[in-house]
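We modelled the chain as a single entity of 133 amino acids. Its sequence is:
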Amino acid sequence: MTPEARTITAGNGLTGGGDLAANRTLTLGTPGSITNSTTNSVTSTSHTHALGFTAAEVYTGTGANDTSFPLGHIIFCYTNNASRNASVTPALRSSLSYQYLHSAHVDAGAILSGTWRSRGVNNDGWTVLQRVA
């Protein structure tokens, strides 16, 4: 038989424990908030996790004039027949569309951030673009 004086001690990141005179519960401490600089760490009553990507990769915008999208994002853009997998610089065209930025399009709006590639063009010059970096 185990003596009641023996104790269970909660280690780092845990709370609870105590002597064996009663049933005991160990509880995982509430984690801290995750940010771009958070590391995998533990304190006496809490813990945190490293973020495996930068928060900038998570798209939270909803505006018609947003210019920063996450990696892998797809847009439909007028490119004047850009070659498949060609690097393309898209810009805002209107609240409804995007366009390839080149000298013939002086009415282009703000340039979208990142590196974009053409993923296929139809006969009218519209293409699917994907953000790759």
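As a brief sanity check on the tokenised model: The chain is about 0% helix and 30% strand. The mean pLDDT is 81.
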